[in-house]
Write a structure and sequence with these properties.
heterodimer; A: 277 residues; mainly alpha; B: 297 residues; alpha/beta; Rossmann fold; 4-stranded antiparallel sheet; 11 helices; globular; disordered C terminus
Chain lengths: 277, 297
């Protein structure tokens, strides 16, 4: 029993170590991605200052508040979307390299596979987002003295679980659609970006999209982080945003694993694991 | 009495859908209940699906420590058979056991005893042999320090120089990459090694080196080896027994010498395995390129 657990822990660590090695080997791409992400976050955040100028002095627009609103949106979205990308690449990266059959024939439980990839995804995303945050804070001279940073972090962690579950579900697309499955995962992330209030309040959306927003974990994460950082809300006050995330996480993670197992069985029945197929 | 069979393949059958097949969502939630029939029916009974039979009710046993060859042309079902043993495909009918462990019902136990080398050496190409093999070792529950030492030993044994061990795989020749693929398989000390055309495309020297390793594995470690190949001379030289497979069926199974006795002497020379193959299948090895392969392959 102890040996079996040790085996699974080592295998889980193996996925993390492999990903660290890949990041090191693709260091040039990591720099490109980082510069792109910083530029993207800054350009969105400058819209806040731009609105102050566009609306004119009489409109009484507080550009600093708008900037912080948008900065929170870009950073939270960056954090969640990086987790999503790494987890959905669980299959597509191995299909691209041709190693998928070797990984799926190894004596490891799928939950071990997912855990290794997920822990790496969360750590990588935290580090990546922290660098973007640092540059943004320096450029905009944002005052975080009143912000409840602990509350903001609690919201991010609470939101991670449901995002992990959704990402695991999306990761089956490259498994069952070998040719275009990887691109299909973008649909999931694009719809969540639209409905979750990343750059605007959900209330400006049509009713149908507002209904969809209720089911997006990003909606609650963004609400909670904004309350914590913009208004300095106490962590206990964030409970209405936290509990829906916890429920979504409790449902989404096991559901994601179940969906993945079904997809793996289908792929093994239909012969979808073969490198060219 | 205790059986010394390493692998028992019992009436295994596998078909693949071709254009006109059932939709993916119909297949997604369909379970193989008993390692065989799909929802209790033969695959051929499922609607209007066009099916191609890759492996057609094949049965054989491989004894522990044996080198068992599977010969056949492209599309004969060799690789499908290997994938079924490796738990990468689920059979439509029949059972495969690996040292008594069913490859569907008891997959984790079976997987721990098997490793595989395929015709394509598939690796993370930017990673070095060491990084790739450490990843492979961890999947089999091995600890890092011991694995690193073992990796260097195995790669040296296969003729790789130190400088190659830490450089990206993409900088290596195909022969070198195939040796790393063999090292990956040896690392987990499998009791059964599935070699799916491991020497295809290799230069003569690399081919001989790989063949020497196969022989050494059997003699020194007692590893059971299933070898699929197009190379008749290789099969004749290495294999204790050979199964000739054609259109998904085993058309003959015996020792190389036994197979050669099946055909008469021709033009004054003793028959070769290739003569046997021609006689039994009615065509040359390179013909019949249309593989009964997985969908989209």
């Amino acid at each position: 029993m102890a040996t079996a657990i040790q085996h699974q822990i080592r295998a889980g660590y193996g996925f993390m170590e492999r990903n660290v090695n890949l990041v090191k080997r693709y260091w040039a791409w990591e720099i490109v991605w980082m510069v792109y992400s910083i530029a993207n976050s800054l350009s969105v955040s400058y819209i806040g200052l731009g609105m102050e100028v566009i609306a004119g002095a009489s409109a009484n627009v507080d550009g600093r508040v708008l900037v912080l609103y948008l900065v929170i949106g870009t950073l939270v979205w960056r954090y969640l979307s990086i987790i999503f990308i790494w987890i959905t690449e669980l299959i597509s990266i191995e299909r691209w390299e041709g190693t998928i059959e070797y990984t799926l024939m190894a004596p490891i439980r799928r939950i071990t596979h997912m855990t290794g990839q997920t822990v790496f995804a969360v750590l990588y995303s935290l580090l990546f987002t922290a660098v973007v945050l640092l540059v943004t804070v320096l450029l905009f001279e944002i005052d975080m003295s009143q912000a409840n940073l602990f509350g903001g972090t609690v919201m991010l962690i609470a939101g991670s679980f449901s995002f992990i579950g959704i990402s695991i579900m999306a990761s089956v697309l490259p498994l069952i659609f070998p040719e275009r499955g990887s691109q299909m995962t973008h649909i999931v992330i694009a719809v969540m970006l639209l409905v979750s209030g990343v750059y605007y309040p959900v209330s400006v959306l049509p009713v149908a999209l507002q209904t969809l927003a209720v089911f997006s974990p990003a909606t609650y994460v963004l609400d909670g982080v904004r309350l914590a950082l913009l208004e300095g809300a106490n962590t206990l006050v964030l409970w209405p945003q936290i509990w829906p995330l916890l429920i979504m996480g409790v449902v989404a993670v096991p559901l994601g694993l179940w969906v993945f197992n079904q997809a793996e069985r289908y792929a093994k029945r239909a012969g979808k694991l073969a490198r060219n197929g | 009495m205790k059986s010394n069979n390493a692998i028992v393949v019992n009436n295994i059958h596998k078909t693949f859908g071709k254009p006109g097949q059932a939709s993916w969502w119909q297949g997604l939630f369909t379970h193989n209940k008993s390692n065989g029939s799909v929802n209790g029916k033969s695959s051929k009974q499922k609607g209007k699906k066009v099916l191609v039979t890759a492996v057609d009710h094949v049965s054989f046993e491989v004894r522990e420590g044996e080198i068992f060859g599977v010969l056949g042309p492209n599309g004969s079902g060799k690789s499908t058979l290997i994938r079924l043993m490796a738990t990468l495909l689920l059979p439509d009918e029949g059972h495969i056991t690996v040292f008594g462990h069913d490859v569907v019902e008891d997959a984790l136990q079976a997987q721990a005893l098997i490793n595989r080398v395929s015709v394509e050496a598939s690796f993370f190409k930017k990673l070095s042999p060491m990084e790739n093999l450490i990843y492979g070792a961890r999947l089999y529950g091995m600890d890092g320090r011991r694995s690193r030492k073992l990796i260097v030993e195995i790669l040296h044994r296969l003729g790789l120089e130190d400088r190659s061990i830490y450089r990206p795989m993409e900088e290596m020749s195909r022969g070198m990459q195939q040796k790393v693929a063999i090292a990956r398989a040896l690392l987990s000390r499998p009791r059964i090694l599935l070699l799916d055309e491991p020497t295809t495309g290799l230069d003569p020297r690399s081919k001989r080196e790989v063949q020497a390793v196969v022989r050494e594995l059997q003699e020194e470690d007692g590893t059971t080896i299933i070898l699929t190949t197009h190379d008749m001379a290789e099969a004749d030289d290495l294999c204790d027994r050979v199964a000739i497979i054609d259109k998904g069926k085993i058309v003959s199974l015996d020792t190389p010498e036994g197979l050669k006795k099946l055909v008469p002497q021709m033009n004054g020379h003793a028959p070769t395995l290739e003569d046997v193959f021609m006689e039994l299948t009615g065509r040359a090895l390179k013909e019949d390129e249309d593989e009964a392969a997985p969908v989209g392959a």
